[in-house]
Amino acid sequence: MALFENEVRKQLTEILNEMKDDVKLVYFTQQIECPMCREASMFVNEISSLSEKLSQKTYNFVTDKTVAEEYGVDKIPAIVILDKDGTDLGIKYYGVPGGYEINSFLGTVLEVSGHGEEIPDEILNEIKSVKNKIDIKVFVSLACPHCPGAVSTSHRLALENENIRAEMIDSNTFPYLAQRYNVTGVPKIIINEKYELTGAHPINSFLEIMKKIEQEQ
Amino acid sequence: MEFKLSAASFVSEKNFLPLDQSALYDVFIIGGGPAGLTAAVYCMRKGLSTGIVVKSLGGQVADTSDVENYMGYRHISGVDLVEKFREQVHQFPIGYDEGAEVVSFSEGKIKKVVFSDGRSFSCKALIIASGKSWRRLGVPGEDRLTGRGVAFCTVCDAPLFAGKNVVVVGGGNSGVESAIDLAPLASKVTVIQNLSELTADTVLVKKLNSFNNVEFIYNSIVEEILGEDIVSGVKLRDLGTGRVSEIATEGVFVEIGLDPNSRFVPPSLELNRFGEIPVDCNCRTSLTGVFAAGDVTTVAYKQIIIAGGEGAKAALAAWDYLLKLNEEE
Ligand SMILES: Cc1cc2nc3c(=O)[nH]c(=O)nc-3n(C[C@H](O)[C@H](O)[C@H](O)COP(=O)(O)OP(=O)(O)OC[C@H]3O[C@@H](n4cnc5c(N)ncnc54)[C@H](O)[C@@H]3O)c2cc1C
Questions:
Q1: Alpha-carbon torsion angle A46, A168, B227, B151, nearest 10
Q2: Nearest-angstrom CA–CA distance, B277 and B297
Q3: What is residue B276's DSSP assignment?
Q4: Measured between CB atoms, which of A15, A39, A145 is closest to B11?
């Protein structure tokens, strides 16, 4: 049985039609001991079949260990999103982008393809001027309506500046991580393992934390 | 697996512009719930130069799973209805900002609206449509432990409390609904109510009583939320006996109703004792050229269709005000 129902498939096709440049999904999976990998595999296969501009390459997390390390993938299922030149932008999904997260996934794919919403110049300049290495983890649950906003914002930051990397983590797929980071409310955003934001936040809240990180150096 | 796709947000026209700090807007709207978004459509159709700031798109409607009393739709999800509102607003070249928060505004013929990020915008008429937000308990521990066991969105956060012992504060509709969502997942749910009975609708209470892991503590209020890094318990006071006790819990869901978002208004703007903005039947406030609409006002009954209607009224009243202002000049 297909993951996407006909109506959803039609809408997805129409949305992916808006893509400008090619986008490539690099997907890491394995046959055993990964309960969510079956659905994730279906997701990656089905979504990439809906647009000629969207392709995918599947790797085995165990046997292709060096590739996983290259992309910094340390758990599965994982989807890394690359631009038309195959550049790793530091944008990842850990877990299936189901539920409300399908919206952030599509938004990110469109933005990486060059069909992005404009950001005011002053904010864009601020993003571009971040010089420290920034690592953003956004914990979500798939039933959370305001989580895609947090994921999209962090992915946009990663897209605009190569020093910034951003990943979505589904708390229900990785409960041990949710526990380690004391996630009891989503979205929960962890920046450089140290700073936290809970709830929906504008891009400015992220930038403020990055400024703090710069001052600490 | 379910996909909650908001298809229209990707393919519909988006003609809005970033807000311009050097512009003098005819109308500036604070809030992007049904009241603010309806006001935006009316202002744009009247040809007024309009700016709108939306902290969180859709307001309370974005937090509502199902709407069954907004005319034209027998049933629609809150998220989908917000999407339709947004689409209708974004067809216009309106000045639009999402995510920012208004922290103050100044009165006078030209009003200046100030954002928390320091930006400010000028306008001739102002429409306040900032609605309501979840009321907080205002007790020690609440702010510090929010996102660390203190939660406000049950549908979002319930799965994170699977197998845990949780407390729901509030025995009205939202408290009981939250307990119903938690009961199948949590090991135990304790509902704390400040009255001697639940005030939720009978159907909801019946449903909640069908679970055998739910307990109730009546006539009690939460005085403090306890815990170092994460929630470990709550301190309760029994309103009858005055006795203070502590119960252990890993999660606290606060469901005690809503407060108007009116903290950013100047002291010269009159508020009632609940913090709502009194308006006359033309949505006028006590300040000239400042209009208000929807849940943030004293209007009776807080509903989507009413907030929308009030937003339309505020826009038309602002249009009238601007006409007279131009005649005077
Ligand atoms: C759980 C729930 C279920 C409901 N179910 C229904 C229903 O089924 N049918 C029905 O008719 N009604 C329902 N309601 C009520 C209905 O949602 C409200 O009456 C309606 O949303 C009020 O609209 P509003 O535009 O006045 O305010 P809100 O919806 O509260 O919107 C306020 C807007 O202002 C923004 N804002 C606030 N402060 C600032 C600031 N300082 N700066 C910038 N922006 C700001 C907010 O982010 C938001 O965009 C429900 C409410 C809740 C909470």
A1: -60
A2: 4
A3: P
A4: A15
**Homologous superfamily assigned to B7-134+258-328:** FAD/NAD(P)-binding domain (3.50.50.60)
Say how far residue B218 (Cα) sits from the centre of its chain: 27
Tokens 């050097």, located at residue? B22
CATH 3.50.50.60 occupies which residues in chain B?
Answer: 7-134+258-328, 150-254
Model confidence pLDDT, tens digit, residues B128-170: 999 999 899 999 999 999 888 998 888 888 989 999 999 999 9
Per the annotation, the verdict on B281 as an active-site residue is: no
Residue A16 CA to ligand 1 centre (angstroms): 32
pTM (2 d.p.): 0.81
Residue B43 among the catalytic residues: no
Distance from Cα B22 to the centre of ligand 1, integer Å: 30
| ipTM of the complex model | 0.88
Does B20 contact chain A (CB < 8 Å)? no
Q: Are B145 and B225 in contact (CB under 8 A)?
A: yes
Distance CA B321, CA B329 (A): 13
In the set B26, B97, B157, B181, the catalytic residue is B157
CATH number of the domain at B150-254, please?
Answer: 3.50.50.60
- Residue A160: name the closest of A126, A205, A199 by CA: A126
Backbone angles phi, psi at B237, to 5 degrees: -120, 130
Q: How far is it, in rounded angstroms, from Cα A133 to Cα A193? A: 12
